[in-house]
């Protein structure tokens, strides 16, 4: 079978590899849709640790074509992959904080993932798609699960205000989740087309900059969801929070990168900074939210590519206005 | 009567002023003990906004010597002052976040306080001391209430670890509250005598520096309570938090002062920053905790001065090793 | 002025009384809309304690026509009354649980209320209506604030399911709030017209009985909101909760009335019972939710009566299908 | 090897069975201490479903004498068994509520447990004992983990009051946990010796009955922890809760048994009923709390028996005053 494999620093190529055989607890998934994520590009550029050679792709869904006897699955089911295989026994797992597992083995990073015709994953990491959901929607389960964790951390209640910073896929999922939680939502992003998408998905306001956002809501928002992952938004996020507000950090800065905060301001307005890391027990709820229509994924798909096109698409920066590129093997 | 009044920038003096008369909702308290707080020195140096001329002193307790008909008090009761008169009608008050009241009028800052023979305060800001508690203990009600809010925000559960940064009065109260919540506690402070006090008050470990602390607990603590209020500890606090930990910010830096954080580290270890500002509905619980013996105040009193000595004591920096100086008018 | 006053057991009459004059902290409100609540009927029948003679009416809004100097209000503003005057100094108030205030003095129960041409209330209990909101909507602020407290207690997150029991005004407000919180909502009530209203207000399903509800959702709901206040629904509510679910009790049974629970079932499915009593700090959020369109009140108004008609309307049971009767003085 | 096996209704006998061999993910534990639990007696009497023939015993600890290659364990380690093998893939597990797993397979109930010389368990259900802890203490890990979950649900903060109902092992563990959380604790139990133990373990008060308890604390307690599991205490528990209090239900009544509640009282005092079922992610914290000395187990051991004596001990009711009987194979 074909697989897009990272073979070294800035080296990704389509290779012919053996089709995987399932162990008793595993399933083999025929990948139908796999999203390219910023992390894939970080891995390519060596900005994140990885273990080449490895097949990338941690956001994918497809058809179960082989199922181990103890996998809990039947051939023929549609599933989405939850890429995080937490260990279950480290101190973090023992207290239920599995997203912080020190021994997490991530599919598509530390073992072969979904930019391939077939992918081998443990049965318990294959989540059945709710009736009516296709693999393209299922490919959003992982990024949505991460965003949902961020929104859980934000604890929005109906009638509050939320500002989402960054109009990428995470930001546009956050817009929808904040709205589903009863918040009035503003998206701040520079690209006009993304602002249009946000309005179509339920944002009440959009802004191109922090200043524009403050002009619209001088009191700020109860929750500010940082989804841009750039120093500028990380630093201005607290300014956009209202008194008593929460800044949720979903965006990833480079390891070692610093930003400044003003503790006096955080303290006197009691604004908290709450990071939300990957997806602890949120992926099946994420699928349900797509199935119930609370979250739309179709408007977020800006490109569909073949597996052959995957290496070049990962090696290149995303085209302007790109939200989510799906590989359809 | 005599009162220690701030009359202008770096000008504090003992003045003879009229003894206050209570309105129908007020009480007049004969001040028996009033603590000097770092804030008093900030007000003296103009580092915090104030409205001179004003009698300072916001941590005090004493005897009700006159009580308005609607005050809810009787002459003869011992009370501690809760200095924050929140408005009850601003958006923050309406949603119960009274510590963030935009129109808070603080006794001893914006109106006359407790460095005086008598103080006039609204009846609802005079909390009856639990049986057996004297005014010296009562003078700790306000700082303890602030620290208790910090510990509420920390949400410690039995078996967790807490590191308290700074061995001033707030830090040594935090040590006792963290221990009362079932945590194993380490105090980090430079002054050896304060470390001794912490051990006597239930800390299990002490350290003179962040490095010493990390040598003792390389995994860090579930909650790090910043009570030093200096840039150095504010910046190192997240490093002392374990994966999934909370950094509670009680210490006050100067307005405009910045410190740097590393968002990548906060995110991947999901360490949150949680400021805790003054005392929302915590002061009566604070008094109960002194009464029940969970919190000791006597070991924290390092000086007792007369009202005549108050102006000089506020104008000068605290003597080395000072924890809490009480004015006994 | 005219006022509908309870003068004794099962005696309510329209009386001519003096128009109130505001003290320095009070406002006089020209009542424009006042809702009849089940509690008014309970007071009439002596099922709730009251202090006749007293003007009933605790759900009202109108125009400020006189304002004390310290009231914080200007003549000409539209306000909604929050009827609960908590004391601020009892143990419950001191820890912020003002809805449990032992000395609460409720307007329209323990002192004169809103079934009158004019009502005198403390300035801090008069909440300005958001721009665009009229007095009819404002008359829903109190019942909505109570329901909102119930929904806060329910802690629904997007994608969960909620079952509301009882299609009165509380139930139909709960339907809207649960939906605003991202839940899929089912209303259970016997009256077909109320089920129609629920569907129009965002319920996804309705049922006429518990059995019908279970047939639709055999797994039950994450939150069951009891708003019928009858023994039958109180007792079946836990059966409708899913494993790990919450039963929120808003409905009021008679003092002393008992229902049975099955502790084994509650325990093994970890279903909790969470009562929610009146409105702690929720009324301004309630108004905002009407203003933002999350909650519609117009479809809940089934009758508009004059002040002259109020006594008879309170003395009689509500007509079949009645949801909210407003008195327009 | 020898094992105490349930072979049918009210039939338990010591049998000679094959010593288990570990699969790749399993460990074999040489059982050094195993506690008899009320559940064992319920299984014997057919009051709980079981699958005989099965070796009972779900509270045990011992030495790893064989370890599969993927078990994560080394021969020679001391471990405590967490008996609940949750499935990881049902809807409850997927959202992290593993204690509600619909497919939980409990060791000592649905598969062979610890009343035997050796027990085979999955490596991830074997928790390493903290340094210094022996198997007798380790045998308390499971009941303490359940009790700890109850205390987590109670959310006690320092300065609150807790009443524990029932002086069995669960009650006496609850006493210690409530105290560790900073609460003032009262134990209510009829047996004088158990009350003595409670006082020695940190209870401040004891009472022989609900009436005695109310005489001591007329306002009730912030948290009432039901650990008796009898209809009487289940029914009186809410009466012992203060306004705003929480009743935590740990005790198990028979399936189908009913008790009555008074909804009016629960509502007007906003007293919630919070069941806490088995141990979600709490067992390693439980071990840490024994290791740190917050919880003592030695005073709770009232009998030590051999494996030969186990069947008779399970078949008979516990002797008066019995707290925890350990089987030492
Ligand atoms: N915490 C987690 O578990 C988790 C999981 C997944 C992803 N992430 C992180 O979340 C972040 C977002 O992911 P993504 O996939 O949505 O990335 P993305 O597609 O690159 O989106 C980031 C967006 O931020 C916007 N942006 C850049 N600079 C901005 C500025 N100064 N002000 C406002 N917006 C700005 C960009 O849009 P414009 O050019 O239109 O402004 C861009 O579309 C990334 O850092 C990613 O690593 C975290
Ligand atoms: N959030 C609130 O509501 C609230 C309420 C009250 C007070 N506060 C603030 O809380 C802070 C503490 O108040 P306080 O009255 O306890 O003040 P304090 O007496 O000045 O105590 C601060 C302590 O921090 C220690 N410290 C200084 N630099 C340190 C370092 N690099 N590492 C470790 N410890 C260091 C000092 O002790 P050593 O010299 O021994 O190290 C000093 O005793 C202040 O910033 C105050 O403004 C906040
Ligand atoms: N907790 C609080 O703070 C608070 C505040 C306000 C009100 N309340 C209480 O909340 C409850 C509801 O108030 P409301 O004003 O909405 O009262 P309501 O208008 O009398 O509504 C109750 C509804 O329950 C329905 N009902 C009666 N028996 C039922 C059954 N067996 N199954 C399903 N539905 C049933 C009735 O509708 P159908 O005939 O259509 O079934 C009725 O419309 C009352 O008990 C009230 O006292 C509590
Ligand atoms: N939720 C869970 O996950 C979980 C886990 C483990 C156990 N449990 C349950 O927790 C309960 C306690 O377990 P255990 O092992 O401690 O049982 P236990 O040893 O039987 O203790 C129950 C105690 O309740 C006391 N009691 C009986 N009637 C009483 C009354 N009217 N008033 C006050 N106390 C009374 C008895 O002591 P006196 O004779 O001295 O009064 C007895 O010692 C059981 O129901 C058990 O099934 C639940
Ligand atoms: Zn792990
Ligand atoms: Zn205010
Ligand atoms: Zn009160
Ligand atoms: Zn499961």
From TrEMBL, chains A, B, C, D:
Superkingdom of origin: Bacteria
UniProt KW keywords: Metal-binding, Oxidoreductase, Zinc
InterPro entries documented for this protein: ADH-like_C (IPR013149), ADH-like_N (IPR013154), ER (IPR020843), GroES-like_sf (IPR011032), NAD(P)-bd_dom_sf (IPR036291), Zn_alcohol_dh (IPR050129)
A molecular function (GO) term: oxidoreductase activity
Pfam families listed in its UniProt record: ADH_N, ADH_zinc_N
Residue intervals of the Enoyl reductase (ER) domain: 8-327
Gene3D superfamilies: Medium-chain alcohol dehydrogenases, catalytic domain, NAD(P)-binding Rossmann-like Domain
Name used for this protein in its record: Alcohol dehydrogenase catalytic domain-containing protein
Species this chain originates from: Stagnihabitans tardus
């Amino acid at each position: 079978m074909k697989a897009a494999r990272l073979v070294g620093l800035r080296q990704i190529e389509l290779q012919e590899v053996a089709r995987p055989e399932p162990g008793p607890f595993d399933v083999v998934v025929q990948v139908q849709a796999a999203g390219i994520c910023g992390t894939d590009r970080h891995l390519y550029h060596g900005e994140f640790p990885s273990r080449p050679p490895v097949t990338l792709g941690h956001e994918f869904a497809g058809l179960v074509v082989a199922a181990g006897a103890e996998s809990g699955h039947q051939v023929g089911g549609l599933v989405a992959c939850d890429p995080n295989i937490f260990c279950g026994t480290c101190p973090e797992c023992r207290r239920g904080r599995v997203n912080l597992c020190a021994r997490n083995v991530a599919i598509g990073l530390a073992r072969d993932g979904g930019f391939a015709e077939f992918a081998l994953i443990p049965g318990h990491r294959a989540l059945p798609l709710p009736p009516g959901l296709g693999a393209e929607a299922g490919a959003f389960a992982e990024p949505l699960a991460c965003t949902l964790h961020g929104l859980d951390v934000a604890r929005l209640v109906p009638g509050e205000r939320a500002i989402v910073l960054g109009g990428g896929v995470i930001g546009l999922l956050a817009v929808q989740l904040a709205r589903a939680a009863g918040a009035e939502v503003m998206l701040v992003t520079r690209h006009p087309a993304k602002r249009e998408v946000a309005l179509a998905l339920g944002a009440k306001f959009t802004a191109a900059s922090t200043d524009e956002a403050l002009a619209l809501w001088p009191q700020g928002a109860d929750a500010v969801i940082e989804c841009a992952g750039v120093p500028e938004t990380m630093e201005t996020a607290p300014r956009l929070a209202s008194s008593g507000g929460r800044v949720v950090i979903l965006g990833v800065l480079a390891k070692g990168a610093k930003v400044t905060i003003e503790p006096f301001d955080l303290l006197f307005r009691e604004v908290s900074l709450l990071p939300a890391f990957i997806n602890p027990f949120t992926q099946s709820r994420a699928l349900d939210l797509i199935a119930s229509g609370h979250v739309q994924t179709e408007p977020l798909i800006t490109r569909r590519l073949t597996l052959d096109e995957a290496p070049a698409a990962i090696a290149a920066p995303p085209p302007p206005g790109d939200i989510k590129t799906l590989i359809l093997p």
